[in-house]
Amino acid sequence: MLRVGIFVDAHSVTLHGGYGLRYDNLRRFACRDNSIPVKMSVYLAYDLSRAREDTSYEAKTTRFCEVLRDFEYKVFERPVDRLGDGVSRSCVDVDISVDITRYANDLDRIVLLSNSKEYVPAVKAAQEMGCRVELVGFDNVDETLKKEVDLFVSGYVIPGLLPVKSPYEWGTVGSRVRGVCYDFSHSDGYGFLRYMSKINDKLWVTDSRSAESPFKTVFAHVSQFESDFDTSFLPSRELIFEFDLVENEKGLVAEDIILVSAP
Question: For the whole model, what pTM was predicted?
Answer without folding.
Answer: 0.91
